[in-house]
Amino acid sequence: MTVTKEEVRVRGAELAEKIKEFIHEGNICRIIVKNAHGHTVLEVPVTVGVVAFIAAPVVTAVGALAALAAEWSIEVERDEPGDENT
Fold first, then answer.
1. Is 38 left (phi over 0), alpha (psi -120 to 50) or beta?
2. How confident is the model at residue 13 (pLDDT cuts 50, 70, 90)?
3. What's the CA angle centered on 66, arms 64 and 69, to 5 degrees?
4. Alpha helix locations (H) across 1-86?
5. How confident is the model at residue 85 (pLDDT cuts 50, 70, 90)?
6. CB atoms within 10 A of CB 29
């Protein structure tokens, strides 16, 4: 498997909604939330099977964070199926 990274910039209330979207996608292995200065504020490993279990507390924490600052960066690590023969 290959891990790819994607970074998305959001503002305020969009933070919680975007994290919900990423969690429900299913091929996410880690979500990292950074503030406008690039400092990591929240890092959540997402494991298959516990997505529903961690979704509610993570979104609640993210909602509280969203009220603290205007700009956020969400870095997402995805498991992508790769060519196993190379």
1. left
2. confident
3. 120
4. 14-25, 51-66
5. low
6. 14
Rounded to an integer, the average pLDDT of 34-55 is: 74
Backbone angles phi, psi at 4, to 5 degrees: -115, 155
Stated pTM of the model = 0.72
Q: Which residue has the higher pLDDT, 86 or 60?
A: 60
Cα angle for residues 73, 2, 61 (degrees, 5° grid): 30
Q: Could you tell me if residue 64 is left (phi over 0), alpha (psi between -120 and 50 degrees) or otherwise beta?
A: alpha
For residue 48 the two structure tokens come to 């298959």
Flag whether pLDDT at 46 surpasses 60: yes
**What are the structure tokens assigned to 44, written together?**
């959540």
Query: Whole-angstrom Cα distance, residue 77 to residue 63?
Result: 21
